[in-house]
Each structure stands twice: as C-alpha cells, then as structure tokens.
Amino acid sequence: MVTLKELEELVQKARRYRLKIRIKFKGIKYGVIIESEIKALDDAEKVVSWSKAFPLAPHQVLTNYPVESIQVECSNEIIWSGRSISDLLKSLDQLRC
User: Fold this and answer.
1) Which of 10, 25, 49, 80 is least surrounded by Cβ atoms within 10 Å, i.e. has the fewest?
2) Alpha-carbon span 28 to 78, nearest angstrom
3) Is residue 18 a part of any domain in this protein?
C-alpha cells in the first residue's frame, strides 16, 4: 500500500535529485511518470490526462494496480530498476544524478 505521504516523498525526492521515475503496470496500457509532478503516460510514452488514464487518485493507483516495472532515470540513463514501490522508497536516498 502506498500512502499519500509516501507518494509526496517520491515526488519531492524526484525533484530534489532530478530523477524520472517511470512505473508500468501489468495489463494496463497507461503508466506513471514522476518528475517534478505526477503524470499519466500512454503506451507510446506520451503524457495524457490523468482522468483519461486512471479512475483513481495517484496514491490509489500505485496501491491498487499491479506493478510490472519501475525504472529510475537520471539524464536518460537507468540508475535503478525494480518492481516494488517499497524497495524504491528504501533505495531512493542512495540514488544520485
């Protein structure tokens, strides 16, 4: 389960460390990117409106949709990958651009 506070922490650290966090979900054509804000992406990696992509709030999407993959990028280079939001939260302070 991802709380609103944890999601705010992800956004804050993505801003601070200049990271892009890409999250893909199993069986869903839309994903999420977290940079300076949270955005929905279609399968072509283009930003779409949140309400078009998901019927839930961002922290509910991260809790209720099964995560297929998470990638953290810095300057278009993948510096971390995994499948768990909790693992990402534990690792985030060690990641730097």
Assistant:
1) 49
2) 22
3) yes
- CB–CB of 20/35 below 8 Å? yes
Q: What is the pLDDT along the chain (97 residues), one digit of tens a residue?
A: 888 999 999 999 999 989 999 999 999 999 999 999 999 999 999 999 999 999 999 999 999 999 999 999 999 899 999 999 989 988 988 887 7
pTM score: 0.91
Which residue carries 């991802």 as its tokens? 2
In a domain, 9, yes or no: yes
E strands of the chain, at which residues? Answer: 20-25, 31-34, 38-41, 47-48, 67-74, 77-82
The torsion defined by the Cα of 44, 86, 56 and 46, in degrees rounded to 10, comes to -10
How many domains is the chain partitioned into structurally? 1
**What domain range includes position 11?**
4-85
